[in-house]
Specification:
heteropentamer, A mainly alpha, B mainly alpha, C mainly alpha, D mainly alpha, E alpha/beta, C: mainly alpha, 3 helices, E: alpha/beta, Rossmann fold, two-stranded antiparallel ribbon, 7 helices, 7 strands, 14% strand
């Protein structure tokens, strides 16, 4: 059997790179937050240290097999999502499996992890976890709707559901979908705020309120795996948005720049906003983002 | 063997019974059974003959149109068979059910009812029809009051009051007809009435509609029916529903098809049938007493039959006959089982039936079975007749009656199933150990088997229904055979 | 003609009694009157002015001169039936009076609705 | 004799025999019931290769039974679910009363469903439809006093449905003079267009009741939740599909001639969408597990109806795929909830909690079930959802797809609540006695779980018979491979790759997390949680289950206020009042009755011209 | 190439480095000392630059910060919180009260020496200690960690009976759940 080494390379390295980039972004977020709050802030590699520390915890507890598998579900979802997104445009190494799936698949695999985590959190028996899950799922219903509207608008406009086809369409920066379909972008980016879980939509983990919500019984290697997964997932989502709206990237530098700019939107929003209650955030997602979504579809249809 | 047996033998038995009563009570009970068994035998033997070719029996030697004739055609064959068979089953049921004295009077009146009903079906003479009507009616009044209680007498009096009206109008109609055509033979009248002035004919028609409409429970002439059904002993309720009303409807339709066969009349019947059915079903919905509920249901079913007759096409008439057959069977089954349920629960109220399904599994089963059958669910026989009625109505191009019939079916389902629910699911423990007598169970069992059999193999009955319907609709052949 | 008029009048009087009078006995009487009215009507139908009995009692008698015998036969039967009905009715009234201690038809309505 | 005759004969005769045997030799009863169901399954499989037709006359009609690829699809569903249900019922019902009644009606239901799918004429279709209806009604009211009004509601709605079917049948008969399916299909175009639409709408209403489309769904939640669990599995899994069966026939075999029909289809699709969305919302706020699943069923049937109504090859494939799949996963879920009920005696989600370690296999079944329902890869639900979305987008139902997507996202909420409340969460002392259910109950659940897994990886295996069925329905040209699905724009998804990637990553991560510090990883009870240092009492209730989705409820509160159920109840009550009023016509006064007679006489005489057309 | 011993040494160094710079604190605000934490964490002193951050639950935490005196009642909670933490875990006694009872030295229901009940790694003295002192305490802990001397958890496990005995002495209604150590 002939082995496609460049593909193997991609499979091995994509998650690693995604992890590193994601975790660095996480560190930078903390630092930027600190600077805005007139603090010095931790070093940018602080999150890597945190994760290493969590993995190096000597004792771990779980409340049963679902809690044990919860973070595994999460990281499976993140890595699978990543594998089905073309990270670098036209690169034989970083295309991975992106020709075997499409946007609908990505939509679903993205919630796979949250559901797995929710199951794990459920088994801990901690009421805070359950409250967190309840809030998270409610909010999910909120932001998925405008997000899907945006995607539907795009899919209809370009008559494809494949991410690679969308990338092929945006061969010049004037043809980026952000310009071709601005309303879809608006709807999607507002949904993206919810998806990232930063303030004002951080009611799920709400540390001072429900003791960090779903992960409140997770510690040690479980928490480590969760944070790893979160880093990868953040990067995967950023790449997805870049691919859809910003025309993807031919090389790493562009990718980093584009993703970083995208990433700053929720981060900077998060720093200056207080927290929405669950129903407020659902209502928010069903007001302006929904409006933009409908507008996007109407623009496409007529 | 001749059709005269159908009238003569029960009449003879009716007078024999009081005498037999002097000898032995058992004899009183057995004689009607033997008579009905014999009549059933006769009807089954005569059935193919009558269906094939009408038998016209001349009484007392006078030739028609002067003498009284008996016309034993396909439909008469069918109805006599139905009456005798149902009568036999009712006797079987009564055998242990009627334990109150005076038993001989009960059986005497019962025999009179059979006489009257078969007479109505068989006779070819309009005044003779009136006489048989009166025989039936008087027997029915008396049977209604048979239990000698307060309500029975009341019901019987109302029945009598309205029934007298019916006979009055009927007699008036006969008088007017006779004044105009000077004949009493139905076939002869059918020929000659064409020459009578339209206004007179119409007046006669209205009088017939009222007179016979009362007996066939047409709204708003059916005020007597719920009371009489519910206060008479249960087998008598079955007799009313299964025999008397059928005979009345038959005579109404015979007269209308013979003398007044016009679309307007049929449409009027159609509308009246619908009104009757709807009002009866709606009234049944909230009844407190089970037998009263059955009475209203009976009226509703007769409404359905009248609707089908009102369409007036051959398929619809056939469907109406089929429905009459099924209704006779199923309603008898329901009255039988309800009779024992009421007897066991000690109250006529539906609410007293809670949990009887556990005490009296078989009787309750028969009731549930009958309930499912009368709603018209397959695989019971009621399904086919309802289906045929609907198909024939639609064939005539009408859709509104179809919808209304189905709505009333839903209402019917609601009130029947409520009772069934109560029987089985409202109370869990068994309390009573009294048994339903075997003869009653056999009677119900026979009906059940026939209902199922017809349900699975409707051709059994349907094949005989086609000539019957043709017979009823074919005026020419009636005249031809009735007058030689 | 007078027979017809009288018979119809009788029927109407009887109807009135049945529909308006509250006493059960009176109602039954009303029914009887209606019956009699109809009987009279039937006889009137068969009546031939100056007719004879429908028997060929003397030679040369034409059938058209006889009264019609059929209505008479009918009336006989009807009278018998009417009698029977009246008898049943009266016996029922006795029973009703035993139970209700009244003959007012408005008060005898335990069975309703 | 051929297989179809055997199937119907054995099932119906078996029902009667089971009932009789119950009263004679109790232990034989279960064996006979299982044998009957198994032989039904055997003959259904036999019949797959045959193409047979039985014709015989009943009454004036030709009764025709035969199998088509379309009916085969449903027959297999019925046979498998019927068999598994009876297998499951063996232990579940062991302690119950009136088992003869139960098994007889269960087999009647199964037989009725066989009859429906094998009927090639409308008379036997209606015949079996009614048989199925009343036998299922008898099963709904089986349990207790509380079930009676619910059963009545079920029956009334079923009757409305059945009778609108009947009206349609009667109309067809009046128009074409024939009730054989093949004949009708040929002559249907000759009927006037208005009548075509009316007939189609009536048929859709009739079938729609069983498949619980929105304004006709109100019977479903209560009936599903009150009926005994083994039957509920069949009820939701197979019986509701009979409506779908009929809707498919109507949409593609009957009324494809008329131009107006596209409007009916659009309305139907939107009704399906609204059904899906609202049923999902209602499901979220249920506290009874079976009721939740009942609403979930309604929602899922909404998807199927959308798929059928949209009518592109891919959407029909999605709908039929969902039919099979919904049969499997809803049966799994009901069986799993039934297992909980079997051991705890309640399905109240507020009181049962933390059963995962006591009933692990039931938990796995439910986990597979909810993953399938939610449509998350890699199980079968995803393939169905994928096809549905793609087809909706490509057939330009943009807003419908949003509604559907919102519904299926909201479905996560109730699915999570279901599994969380019953199996996850605090392990309360109250349920410490609970054990796993007996083997005979587990087998059906595990078989179905295996099936949804296979259907997820190799959807092509299920799509093979579906494509045959679709050819029968007159739809060609939809492309698939064993594990690759294509949409109409040529995009594809390779389920094999998906499962490989997910499996590999899951395995690596799982192994890592398991073997990393294996010795120092320990299990602690669910009482040992972070409670700010407080020490919970042994019987202290730490479960968060009541008002689980209060925030969400607050967010969508306005949408929940209107309840169709209440409207129906009001209509029903008012009608009953009106009926009650009518019976006051019967005053009880004999004189009044006499007055009626005379008045009626006068009226007839007065209006003789109006009535009889002749002036008096 | 490295041999096993050297490899594990390097791994240890990395581990300790990470542990040292990532101290997640569960602060048990038992006494007045809790008021000193907000300034420590926020922009004036900004403890986060040393990798110190608050954690919501003991499951995620590394450091148990006992800010002030402990009454018998709170001791029970503190013990439970401590035992729910994952190893390696550290305890910082904050203020004089944790050392010797401080101003509550003669109170009947206050724990005098925390070290008898939980293995304290670092004491920060003062009443109250300023944020500077707190940070210096943390830095001391970091030093101990990098030297591998912060082995409070190990001590606790090894001398569990002794600690339990002491704990039971003051906690009269001992209804603690048994942990499967």
């Amino acid at each position: 059997m002939e082995i496609n080494w460049s593909a193997v390379l991609g499979i091995v390295f994509t998650p690693v790179i995604a992890f590193l980039v994601g975790v660095t972004y996480g560190g930078l977020t903390r630092r930027i937050t600190a600077r805005i709050q007139n603090r010095f802030g931790p070093p940018f590699y602080q999150n890597i240290l945190d994760i290493i520390k969590l993995y190096s915890k000597e004792s771990n507890i779980n409340h049963g097999v679902m809690q044990h598998l919860g973070p595994v579900f999460a990281i499976t979802a993140s890595v699978t999502t990543l594998f089905f997104i073309p990270v670098i445009k036209d690169s034989p190494v970083f295309t991975n499996f992106s020709f075997n799936g499409d946007l609908i698949f990505l939509l679903y695999i993205m919630v796979f992890g949250s559901l797995g985590m929710a199951l794990g959190a459920g088994q801990t028996g901690n009421p805070n976890s359950a409250i967190g899950v309840s809030r998270g799922l409610s909010q999910l219903v909120g932001y998925e709707v405008p997000f899907v509207m945006a995607l539907v608008a795009i899919m209809v406009q370009f008559q494809t559901t494949s991410l690679n086809d969308l990338l092929a369409v945006q061969d010049h920066f004037t043809k980026w979908i952000i310009f071709q379909s601005p309303f879809a972008f608006l709807a999607a980016i507002l949904a993206f705020l919810g998806m990232m879980g930063y303030a004002p939509f951080d009611v799920v983990i709400a540390p001072a309120e429900i003791a960090s919500g779903p992960p409140s019984e997770f510690g040690g290697k479980y928490l480590g795996l969760m944070l790893t997964s979160r880093s990868i997932f953040t990067f995967a989502k950023l790449v997805l948005f870049t691919d859809i709206f910003l025309g993807g990237a031919h090389d790493f530098i562009t990718l980093i720049i584009k993703t970083f700019i995208l990433y700053m939107i929720p981060v900077l929003t998060g720093i200056v906003f207080p927290r929405f209650r669950t129903e407020q955030s659902i209502r928010f997602f069903w007001s302006w983002p929904l409006f933009f979504g409908i507008l996007a579809i109407l623009v496409v249809v007529f | 063997m001749s059709p005269v047996h159908f009238i003569a033998i029960p009449l003879f038995a009716a007078f024999l019974i009081p005498l037999a009563g002097k000898v032995s009570k058992e004899l009183v009970k057995i004689i009607p059974g033997l008579v009905l068994l014999y009549l059933s035998f006769v009807s089954v033997t005569l059935f193919p003959i009558g269906t094939h070719h009408p038998v016209v029996e001349i009484i007392a030697g006078f030739k028609p149109p002067f003498g009284i004739t008996l016309y034993y055609g396909a439909i008469a064959a069918f109805l006599t068979t139905l009456i005798t068979l149902i009568g036999f089953v009712i006797w079987l049921y009564s055998y242990k059910f009627i334990i109150r004295e005076p038993i001989e009077k009960y059986y005497m009146l019962f025999m009179m009812l059979i006489t009257g009903s078969t007479g109505i079906v068989l006779t070819g003479d309009i005044f003779n029809l009136f006489v048989f009507f009166e025989i039936t009616s008087i027997a029915a009044y008396s049977l209604t009051a048979f239990l000698r209680d307060r309500d029975g007498a009341e019901a019987a009096f109302k029945y009598l009051l309205i029934g007298s009206f019916a006979s009055t109008f009927f007699l008036l109609a006969i008088a007017i007809i006779y004044a105009n055509v000077h004949t009493l033979n139905l076939a002869d009248i059918a020929v000659k009435i064409q020459d009578v002035p339209v206004t007179t004919r119409l007046f006669v028609l209205i009088l017939f509609l009222i007179g016979l409409g009362i007996e066939s429970e047409m709204f708003p002439l059916n005020g007597w029916a719920p009371d009489a059904y519910s206060q008479a002993p249960s087998p008598v309720g079955a007799v009313f529903g299964g025999i008397v009303v059928k005979a009345a409807v038959y005579s109404l339709m015979r007269i209308i098809f013979l003398m007044f066969n016009s679309h307007d009349v049929l449409h009027f019947l159609l509308v009246m049938g619908i009104i009757t059915m709807l009002i009866a079903e709606m009234s049944a919905m909230k009844q407190q007493q089970i037998k009263r509920m059955l009475a209203f249901s009976s009226i509703g079913q007769m409404g359905l039959v009248i609707i089908a007759f009102g369409i007036g096409t051959e398929p619809s008439v056939r469907a109406a006959m089929f429905q009459m057959f099924n209704h006779a069977l199923i309603k008898s089954l329901l009255f039988f089982s309800a009779g024992y349920l009421v007897f066991h629960s000690g109250s006529k109220k539906i609410s007293a039936l809670d949990g009887l399904g556990h005490d009296k599994p078989i009787t309750s089963f028969f009731f549930a079975f009958g309930a499912l059958a009368i709603i018209g669910l397959p695989p019971f026989s009621g399904f086919w007749s309802k289906l045929y009625i609907l198909l024939s109505i639609a064939d005539a191009g009408l859709m509104v009656p179809v919808v209304l019939i189905l709505i009333s079916s839903i209402i019917e389902a609601v009130y029947y199933l409520r009772v069934v629910s109560r029987l089985y699911f409202y109370k869990e423990e068994a309390t009573d150990v009294r048994r339903t007598p075997v003869s009653g169970l056999i009677a119900m069992g026979i009906l059940t088997v026939v209902i199922l059999l017809v349900g699975f193999y409707p051709n059994l009955i349907l094949n005989w229904m086609t000539p019957a319907a043709a017979d009823l609709l074919n005026k020419a052949s009636y005249i031809k055979f009735g007058l030689f | 003609m007078i027979y017809y008029a009288t018979s119809i009048l009788l029927i109407l009087i009887g109807m009135y009694a049945v529909l308006v009078k509250k006493n059960l006995i009176k109602i039954v009487i009303g029914l009887s009157i209606v019956d009699n009215g109809i009987h009279l009507l039937l006889i009137a139908i068969g009546y031939v002015k100056d007719g004879t009995a429908p028997i060929f009692s003397k030679p040369g008698l034409q059938a058209s001169q006889m009264v019609d015998p059929v209505p008479q036969a009918l009336v006989l039967t009807a009278i018998v039936i009417g009698l029977a009905v009246t008898a049943v009715a009266l016996s029922l009234i006795i029973r009703l009076y035993d139970h209700h201690k009244t003959l007012n038809i408005n008060k005898i309505r335990k069975l309703k609705w | 004799m051929n297989s179809i005759a055997y199937i119907l004969l054995i099932t119906f005769a078996g029902a009667g025999i089971t009932f009789i045997v119950h009263h004679l030799i109790k232990p034989l009863r279960d064996i006979i019931a299982i044998t009957v169901a198994a032989s039904g399954l055997y003959f259904v499989i036999q019949s797959l290769t045959e193409k047979t037709k039985i014709v015989f006359g009943i009454a004036d009609f030709n009764i025709i039974w035969g199998n088509t690829p379309y009916s085969n699809l449903f027959a297999v569903l019925i046979a498998v679910l019927g068999f598994l249900t009876i297998l499951y019922a063996r232990d579940f019902m062991a302690e119950k009363e009136r088992l003869g009644y139960f098994y007889m009606n269960l087999l009647f239901v199964i037989g009725g469903m066989y009859g429906i799918v094998y009927s090639q004429d409308l008379i036997s279709l209606f015949f079996f439809w009614e048989v199925m209806t009343w036998s299922s009604f008898l099963l709904v009211i089986y349990c207790c006093k509380e079930a009676q009004p619910i059963g009545l509601k079920y029956f009334v709605f079923s009757a409305i449905g059945a009778y609108s079917l009947l009206i349609a049948i009667v109309m067809i008969y009046a128009q074409t003079g024939n009730l054989e399916l093949s004949n009708i299909l040929q002559n249907f175009g000759n009927i006037s267009e208005v009548n075509q639409i009316v007939i189609a709408v009536l048929l859709l209403t009739g079938f729609g009741v069983k498949s619980a489309i929105m304004p006709l769904h109100v019977w479903a939640p209560d009936s599903y939740s009150i009926s005994p669990s083994p039957f509920t599995a069949l009820f939701s899994g197979a019986l509701s599909k009979m409506g779908i069966f009929g809707i498919g026939m109507v949409l593609f075999k009957f009324a494809s001639h008329s131009g107006y029909f596209s409007y009916v289809k659009i309305i139907l699709a939107w009704l399906g969408g609204i059904t899906a969305l609202l049923a999902t919302f209602y499901a979220i706020f249920q506290t009874d597990a079976k009721k939740l699943l009942a609403y979930s069923s309604i929602g899922q049937l909404g998807y199927i109806i959308i798929g059928l109504a949209v009518g592109t090859p891919l959407s029909i494939a999605a709908a039929l795929f969902l039919v099979i799949l919904h049969g499997a996963f809803k049966a799994m879920l009901f069986m799993s909830v039934g297992a909980v009920y079997f051991r705890t005696g309640t399905t109240d989600m507020n009181s049962v909690t933390g059963l995962i370690r006591k009933m692990p296999l039931s938990f796995v079944t439910m986990l597979f079930g909810i993953i399938t329902v939610s449509g998350v890869p890699p199980l079968g639900g995803f393939a169905a959802k994928w096809m549905l979305y793609e087809s909706l987008i490509q057939s330009k139902h943009y807003f419908l797809v949003i509604v559907v997507f919102a519904a299926s996202t909201a479905a996560f909420l109730y699915l999570y609540k279901l599994i969380f409340s019953l199996f996850l969460g605090q392990e309360e002392v109250e349920w410490s006695h609970v054990k796993e259910v007996p083997l005979l109950m587990l087998i059906p659940m595990l078989i179905l779980s295996a099936f949804v897994l296979v259907a997820g990886i190799f959807p092509g295996l299920v799509l093979d018979p579906i494509s045959h069925a679709m050819q029968y329905l007159g739809n060609y040209g939809f492309k698939y491979e064993t594990s690759v699905l294509f949409n109409e724009w040529g995009n594809k998804i390779n389920m094999q790759t998906v499962i490989n990637v997910i499996g590999a990553v899951f395995l690596i991560a799982g192994l890592f997390v398991t073997f990393k510090g294996l010795k120092k990883t320990r299990y602690v009870t669910t009482k040992d949680i972070h409670t700010s240092g407080e020490i919970p009492e042994e019987n202290e209730n730490l479960t968060y289950a009541v008002d689980f989705y209060k925030p969400f409820e607050r967010a969508i509160a306005p949408a929940l206020k209107a309840s169709i159920d209440k409207i129906y109840t009001a209509i029903g009550n008012n009608l009953e009042q009106a009926f009650d009023f009518l019976r006051y016509v019967y005053t009880g006064n004999g004189q009044t009755y006499a007055m009626y007679v005379v008045l009626f006489l006068s009226l007839l005489i007065l209006f003789a011209e109006l009535i009889f057309g002749i002036k008096l | 190439m490295f041999n096993d011993k050297e490899a594990s040494k390097i791994v240890d160094i990395i581990k300790n480095f990470a542990r040292k710079h990532s101290l997640w604190v569960v602060a048990y605000g038992t006494g007045c000392g809790a008021i000193e934490l907000p300034p420590t964490m926020t922009s004036r002193y900004d403890a986060e630059r040393f990798g110190i951050r608050g954690s919501a639950t003991p499951r995620q935490a590394d450091v148990l910060l006992i800010t002030g005196y402990l009454s018998v009642k709170t001791l029970k909670r503190v013990i439970r919180t401590y035992e729910q933490m994952q190893e390696p875990k550290y305890v910082i006694g904050f203020g004089s009260c944790t050392i010797n009872g401080g101003m509550y030295w003669d109170s009947y229901n206050t724990i005098k020496a925390l070290d008898r009940y939980l293995p304290v790694d670092v004491y920060i003295n003062g009443c109250m200690p300023r944020p500077e002192a707190v940070i210096s305490g943390f830095i001391k802990l970091q030093q101990l960690i990098s030297e591998g001397k912060a082995d409070g958890a190990k001590r606790y496990r090894e001398n569990l009976e002794w600690y339990r005995e002491n704990q039971r002495k003051v906690i009269k209604n001992w209804r603690m759940p048994e942990y499967n150590w």
